[in-house]
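Records of this kind hold a single protein each, on a pair of labelled lines. With that in mind, the following record should read easily:
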Amino acid sequence: MTTAVAPRPAPAAALLTEVAAVTGRRLRHLRRAPARVLGVALSPLVSMVMLGYLFRDSISLPAGGSYGEYVFAGGAVQVALACVGPTAVSVALDLQGGMTDRFRSLPISRSAVLFGHTLADLLVGLLGLTVVTGAGLLLGWRPNSGPLRVLAGFALIAVFVYAMLWLGVLFALTLRNVETISVITPFVVIVLPFLSNAFLAPQNIPSLIRPVAEWNPVSAVIACCRRLWGNPATAGGTFPADHPWVVAGVSLGLLLALCSLVSLRRYRTAGA
């Protein structure tokens, strides 16, 4: 009499199962910390209220239009930047607390751990984006295009959020120290938006740093969203301003590929 042996799942199916398990574990942890969503949305909300509402009559756009509608895309994209720090801290805590060694002792793929982590944090980022969008609607933002174009804009931001999550993972695996990460990552939220077209048109930025603002991937994503939503956009005349889709596509593709591949490579030896 022979005993039937259950067939082993295909590698792809096994990987999906492992990613789902790690994602579920991470979501259960996040459910006990609902303030995480507020933390992701807080900085964009402050920027939108302080600039888009209080100073909306004090700042003019070279191409005209409502400054409140102009600044919303900058606030929405800032959600992605705000996700970098919490994700980096979380991964670093896993490294310091021995969770990485526990995962290494289990018969699961190393990549499943990081994919599960980033997918769970992507949900947090999307919830934060929902909060910011609701606040934007209350403050007067309105899309002036069809529903498909509106959804395409939010989908682009979701891709940007995911790329920033992998940047956070790379920070964690490179720096490894929570205190160091907590000092460095806030600069991502503070500096990158102000070195972009998030709150000011590039024409109003000092000429010394204007090329940085024009070629900043953040500027490209924001410009694409403004066009998709029918909101006021910056004037053209430069390649990034005239072709934001090219800059956004190339920069996001390179950023996501570089951060994820390097992170997965470093994770193989992390905690060893």
